[in-house]
Amino acid sequence: MKNVIVGQSGGPTSVINSSLLGVFKTAKDRGADIVYGMVHGIKGLLDRDVVDLSQRIKTDLDMDLLKRTPSSFLGSCRYKLPDIVGNEKTYEQIFATLKELEIYAFFYIGGNDSMDTIKKLSDYGAQVNSPIRFVGVPKTIDNDLAITDHTPGYGSAAKYIAATTKEIIRDGLVYDYPVVSVIEVMGRNAGWLTAATALAKGEDCEGVDQIYLPEVVFDVDKFLKQMGDLLKQNRSVVVAVSEGVKVADGRYVCELSDHVDYVDAFGHKQLAGTARFLAGKVAEKYGVKTRAIELSSLQRCAAHITSRIDVTEAYNSGGAAVKAAFEGQTGQCITLKRVSDDPYMCITEPADVHFIANVEKKVPLEWITDDGTNVKPELVHYIHPLIQSEISPLWVDGLPRHIRLHVKSTIKK
Question: Which residues lie below 8 Å from residue 344, measured CB to CB, with a gap of 6+?
Answer without folding.
Answer: 309, 338, 385, 388
